[in-house]
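Request: When convenient, would you put together a sequence paired with its structure tokens?
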Amino acid sequence: MKVMDTVSGHKPCRLTAKGAAMRTRIIEAAADLIDEHGVNGTSLDDVMAKSGASKSQVYHYFRDKDDLVCEVISHHTHQVIDSFRPYMESLDSMDALIAWKNAVINGCQMKGGRGGCPIGSIANEMADQCEVARAVLAGCFETMIEQIESGLTSMKAKGVLRRDADPHRLSVAILGAIQGGMLLAKTERSTVPLELAMDMALDHIARHLA
């Protein structure tokens, strides 16, 4: 997985169990606030108030706000990948792709279409504002693409997909459909756009079946 535990390059000193717990608490508090208010609507003072951390603790673990935002991006990426790991690890057939699609849609339905993809939301806000965050976001999306591509490559190796199928390009198309579908679902408070987008993506893959 490309996403490192410390994605920004700022490596804190070796942490005690108490220090690691505080660092995690700060990241989780920032993640919750950013999900609700966005990056620009969240200040370090807000994070300190929610996490119970002091200013000196925040700056001990994170160089600045951008550094913390990068860690939030990594945190969300791990969450997304972990939540769908059972599906992604067996993504080697159309039935498996459909099961994964249903899991993604069910997750969106549980939130009433709200929230969208947390990584996509940060990307929409930060990709043109902070080059470091943009690079981290690009790496996170690439990690997701690789997860999908691994399954499609397995399908191709088994002869499920045609020999001329390109797993990488298909994976990019799938992730693009998911991100666009989640944005519309978030805006419309309905999972229908996500369902349509993912159905279209899977139909595209089906056209490459052997």
Remarks:
- The chain is about 70% helix and 0% strand.
- The chain has a mean pLDDT of 90.
- The longest helix spans residues 131-157.
- The two ends are 30 Å apart (CA to CA).
